[in-house]
Amino acid sequence: xxxxxxxxxxxxxxxxxxxxxxxxxxxxxxxxxxxxxxxxxxxxxxxxxxxxxxxxxxxxxxxxxxxxxxxxxxxxxxxxxxxxxxxxxxxxxxxxxxxxxxxxxxxxxxxxxxxxxxxxxxxxxxxxxxxxxxxxxxxxxxxxxxxxxxxxxxxxxxxxxxxxxxxxxxxxxxxxxxxxxxxxxxxxxxxxxxxxxxxxxxxxxxxxxxxxxxxxxxxxxxxxxxxxxxxxxxxxxxxxxxxxxxxxxxxxxxxxxxxxxxxxxxxxxxxxxxxxxxxxxxxxxxxxxxxxxxxxxxxxxxxxxxxxxxxxxxxxxxxxxxxxxxxxxxxxxxxxxxxxxxxxxxxxxxxxxxxxxxxxxxxxxxxxxxxxxxxxxxxxxxxxxxxxxxxxxxxxxxxxxxxxxxxxxxxxxxxxxxxxxxxxxxxxxxxxxxxxxxxxxxxxxxxxxxxxxxxxxxxxxxxxxxxxxxxxxxxxxxxxxxxxxxxxxxxxxxxxxxxxxxxxxxxxxxxxxxxxxxxxxxxxxxxxxxxxxxxxxxxxxxxxxx
Length: 546
Hints:
Layout: H1 10-21, E1 30-34, E2 43-49, E3 55-60, E4 65-70, E5 74-77, E6 88-94, E7 100-105, E8 114-119, E9 122-125, E10 135-140, E11 146-150, E12 157-162, E13 165-168, E14 178-185, E15 190-196, E16 205-210, E17 215-218, E18 227-233, E19 239-244, E20 251-256, E21 260-263, E22 270-278, E23 284-290, E24 293-298, E25 303-305, E26 316-317, E27 325-329, E28 335-341, E29 344-352, H2 353-359, E30 360-368, E31 371-378, E32 385-392, E33 400-406, E34 412-417, E35 424-434, E36 439-449, E37 458-459, E38 471-477, E39 481-489, E40 494-503, E41 506-512, E42 525-532, E43 537-544
Antiparallel strand pairs: 1-29, 2-3, 3-4, 4-5, 6-7, 7-8, 8-9, 10-11, 11-12, 12-13, 14-15, 15-16, 16-17, 18-19, 19-20, 20-21, 22-23, 23-24, 24-25, 26-28, 27-28, 28-29, 30-31, 31-34, 32-33, 32-35, 35-36, 37-38, 38-41, 39-40, 39-42, 42-43
């Protein structure tokens, strides 16, 4: 690390270094939306999302009810059956037409399950084969084909419903294994699930079933393993799940007929995991385990902890609890799962920032002598909403509401913030609350209100940015003085101290090799480089793309 060599003018260095980093890909960025709950005392879980972004799950309370959700329509509560009565219901699968399938039980622990179908706001119990009294519906495709299971324990069998008529899946793999439960079905009629090996009861058998040909094949395990638990299949044949040796810990995998079974790297600080959803692009989501449950995204090349993709100060905890999950991903990259918000387990939808760009047409701030002028324009249907403009001294808060606009005035507005202290960086974001109660943040920008004197410390933008292995940042001091330059993550936690000492007036450079203070490689994500002197604080954003 070199902290003393002199550079030419910062503007020239910045221009050259931004060009050097222009070819590097940035990690995907998201806005997170609270899907909501049906009753105020409920907690919620997101279980699956369709190709076009229709989500389902459950709002857990007494009673527990299934729901459907879309970004445009918000949460819709689904009714529980009354005859026979089932007060604890969950949505497990959903198609693009909004049909939801799931289970209804008599207790919160899943007693006496019945397979359910919700269509057009009504609920029906799917028929069971003769002699059967228990069943579960796990997924439905766009043709209305439903898959799941009947029975329980050692007498549980995979089943499919065509036009509401059940058929037990009896096809066997070449090795004689059969399907015990089907978890997912695509529009080609291919289903994946868990099966039984009659020669080795300790082995998990992942099965790919073709409903058109009525054939079954085993999903291959990773090297050194002998079984899989596949949980999802895309329309073009990607299969994801968990691979393991007998009943041991699992590792996430993605399989295709063309490329075979490939291990998906785990996020940092985890030792096992499982993929739960995949789209046609081969992007997959799942949950890894260690001390905590850590939802992750795999983009075909890299694995990201979802916590590192959240906008700063979102309020969501997706990596320091045991309740978080990522269960499904749409074709547009909308991720659905569960996390902790303000101490409560809630269902979330992570919406890629290309969707944010469509909603957030303008978000800009300009600092001047009178204050910081913030402007925004939203492309949202209707005007029945409230927009709060929030300000914070750091990217991780604390956030304070400084202005509010409602209804039509919320869609396009401006606000002059005279209270932003000159000489420091201020962060702004918008919090949108819709009529449904859904609340989410849009955008996040930082602006420095200038001091009415010149010659203060300056911090140039990191380069390259995005960076793969490390970056450098130039800073200028007007006079000799003490200075620190530190790297923090999006939660404000110190990652590495780069500079801590006295420097002469002039230009200097601090370097970061991408290694955290504990000696480990810092994971991909968004970081903030902060320069502090006795009279000034300067911050720049840095993206680390592994």
